[in-house]
Amino acid sequence: MNSRAPHSPARRRAAWGAVQVGRAAAVAVGVALAALLLVRLLPGDAVDSRPGGNEGTPIPPRAAAEARAALGLDRPFPAQAIAWAGKAARGDLGYSLADGRPVTRRIAERIPATLLLQGAALSLALGLAVPLGTLLAWRAGSRVDRAARVVLLACFALPGFWVAVLLQGWFAVRWGWLPMQGMSTAAGAGPAGGGVGLDVARHLLLPAVCLALPQIAYVARFARAAVLEVLGDETVRTARAKGLSNGAVLRRHALSQALAPLLTLTGMALPALVGGSILIESIFSWPGLGRLFHDAVQQRDYPVIQALMLLAGGATVAGNLLANRLSTALDPRTADPPR
Amino acid sequence: MPPSPVAGPVDGGTVFAPLTTDPTTLNWVRASDTPAAQIGRLVGDSLVDHGPDLRYLPRLAERWEISADQRVITFHLRPGVTWHDGTPFTASDVVFSYRWATDPGNGAARFAAYFSEVEAVEALTPLSVRVRYRTPFAPALQGWEALLLLPAHRYREAAPGTDPQERSPIGTGPFRLERWRQGEEIVLTANPRYWRGRPHLDSVVLRIVPDNRTAAGALAAGELTLATLPQSDPPPAAAASPDGRIRYKRFATLAIWFIAWNGDGSNPFFADRRVRRAMTLALDREGFRRSVLHGLGQPATSTFVPGTWAYDPSLVPLPYDPAGSARLLDEAGWTDSEGDGVRDRAGRRFEFTLTAFQGNPIAGQIAQVLQEALAHEGVRMRIETLDWPAFVSKLRSRRYQAQISTWLLDVDPDPYDNWHSSQIATGNNVTAYADAEVDRYCEAGRATFDLAARAAAYREVQARLHRDQPMTFLFHPEWVVGVDARLRGFRVPLSGPWRWFPGPLTWWLTTARDPLPLDAQG
């Protein structure tokens, strides 16, 4: 690198990369700060969310004031925000207002479940949707293509909770093939059979399918369009003119070019990996970040909400950046020209 | 033990029950959430407990004496009781628990009211505790029922600033905490040395299931032993599922649903009793109970619960009477003088906002029915739905006009916190209700341990609440719990399936499915 001339393309690319990363970090911090403010605009705080003597009764005003002081909620918002940002910059995300444990600990114990579920859903979506979309592009306009369009639209449009309840009703209640909820069989509920891995996989299947269905529909339509576009392209026409077979045209030319937008799409899906799904995680009792976020909002657990927003904002920015880099690498024409 | 026509209870087996969310802490003195209370009742013990009729019963206190001036209670502790780690349970644990609960630094705010009248708590002998009150204080036993005891020795051994009971509590109760997997499950196992004898069940596994519809499905799929069915669904028509695997039991609780009318004068409507009565008369509560609630729930006349010793069964709920409602509004000066279909008085239109908690779909339905009923009366009502912290915040600051909500009442019916005028500013008198006679009867009911005298005072309170309608008392809700047919000895008193004693201690599992409905069991 160092031997290159100061204005070599590689040097400029590296500089541009640094600019992009810096921009991304700024966006992530901005997102977290905006979230911080938004959450505070919601009426009620962590003390309000606690029941008093009788369940459903608020705790008495004097006790509430004492609790607020103990949690630091009585300080002005800017002071709280600055204190939080200063600590967050040093990697200290503070303690949960709901259960008093370190925020990093609460998030860390939920990350594996969400990564597993979202990762499985994404793999399922890409694994099925790309071949499907390619097939439909190949058969564009056929009866299969038209039928698939209807089915995919339905998959995309059906409400997630409805599909989840339907699948639970069939697979767990009526046929008893798969578990209804949870990430593993309850302690003492008899031998799971096949070990921990298989047990978790069985619990994973229904929620992963529920999450993947709309993604499959979306990605398949996307892949179909991308391949179709490439198929009408000059390179493909040239390849055909050379006498290459249909299969070879598809493999060597069409797919590799259609891949770029798909990678972009995958990069954009990255935030979902750590964002979790409130709905699916609740319906399937999946102990992930989506539920943590839901509970944290219900409890006005500011430090947890802020940390999760920072994580989600960071993942969104990182995903976009990654998608950007990947598509540039695959197709230099799409590069953002450095000025 | 309940006699069974087939065979007596056998030991063994696991009950799987749902918990909507993780407890915030397992220090059951600090905790104020339902999951922690449910676990606390299984792992911990209190001095006093209550029976299905809500009268106080001995638990860790074998017996107690109340002095002639009613200001001193002496508890005699059960000998031979040990904590789960084998340390003997003594009077010093009781004194420690009291001090911990009332130390403001520990954040156990709910105990401030329970022990507000306590002057001193001291250990007389290792097995007796004397509690001195400033004045005779009849709800005292409620505090000793609510205070699940803490092991003093663990706090002595713990590092300063740490709470050994926070994540891995020990108690003297029938079950020990075995494992807590955040977001997944909490495993409790039988305490073989429990002073009342070990529970029949080997373990209770509490699964974290946030969605009650999922819980009902998991019961049907055989993953749970019991689950309360969603209230918005019609209750099952039969006493058991068609395949006989699940039996259904209807149960009431110590809860009330109400619409509170803010009578503090911040709005021109609800400080007037005639207007509040008109609101109640306009709403067809019985029709709603029959149609939307499918007949679940009992009509309410005040915040006293049917079936408890303080309840006055002679009060008749106000009827559905739209014409009477209109008359009362006319009388109060609210007439449609502008002829625009909305009543007004002194230039102010009768328009107000009802605040509802978004997590309660039934409350939303009641609100809509009321909205329509009031529209016919020439009253315009807006509905505002908020999530829990926002809802509570609005309630606490008293910035509401009307709100629909629910209370889960205490075992002791003491109405002081909710209705005494001294509680308007700092307590739970959320409607700013002030009536000199009610104040007097609230005080009288606290000042004697004689249940008959207390009941007499509380009848007077109920009659006035019924007359004045500071709230529209809607229903005492009922639920349906589905139970695996193999679970026997399952009963639900007014305080709910988990809270009373001995509760889950009498539960046992059989391999045969019981053909009888739950109610027919011994």
How would you describe the overall organization of this protein?
The complex is a heterodimer of chains A (339) and B (522). Chain A is mainly alpha-helical and 339 residues long. Chain A has a single domain (9-334), classed as Orthogonal Bundle (MetI-like fold), CATH 1.10.3720. Chain A has helices at residues 9-41, 61-71, 77-89, 103-108, 111-138, 143-157, 160-174, 195-231, 234-241, 246-268, 270-275, 278-283, 289-298, 302-330. In chain A, helix 7 (160-174) crosses helix 8, helix 9 packs antiparallel against helix 10 and helix 13 runs antiparallel to helix 14. The mean pLDDT of chain A is 81. Chain B starts with 13 loop residues before the first strand and ends in a 13-residue tail after the last strand. Chain B has helices at residues 34-43, 91-102, 111-114, 140-146, 152-157, 212-220, 273-282, 285-291, 322-331, 361-376, 388-396, 416-419, 423-426, 436-446, 451-468, and strands at residues 14-19, 48-50, 56-58, 61-66, 72-77, 118-125, 128-133, 175-181, 185-190, 203-208, 226-228, 246-252, 255-261, 298-299, 344-345, 348-349, 351-357, 380-386, 402-408, 471-476, 478-484, 487-488, 508-509. The mean pLDDT of chain B is 91. At the A-B interface, helix 2, helix 7 and helix 13 of A face helix 3, strand 10, helix 6, helix 11 and strand 19 of B.
Give the SSE map.
The complex is a heterodimer of chains A (339) and B (522).
Chain A (H helix, E strand, L loop, with lengths): L8 H33 L19 H11 L5 H13 L13 H6 L2 H28 L4 H15 L2 H15 L20 H37 L2 H8 L4 H23 L1 H6 L2 H6 L5 H10 L3 H29 L9
Chain B lengths: L13 E6 L14 H10 L4 E3 L5 E3 L2 E6 L5 E6 L13 H12 L8 H4 L3 E8 L2 E6 L6 H7 L5 H6 L17 E7 L3 E6 L12 E6 L3 H9 L5 E3 L17 E7 L2 E7 L11 H10 L2 H7 L6 E2 L22 H10 L12 E2 L2 E2 L1 E7 L3 H16 L3 E7 L1 H9 L5 E7 L7 H4 L3 H4 L9 H11 L4 H18 L2 E6 L1 E7 L2 E2 L19 E2 L13
Parallel strand pairs in B: 1-10, 17-18, 17-19
Antiparallel strand pairs in B: 2-3, 4-5, 5-7, 6-7, 8-9, 9-10, 11-21, 12-21, 13-19, 13-20, 14-20, 15-16, 22-23
Helix pairs in contact in B: 7-9, 14-15
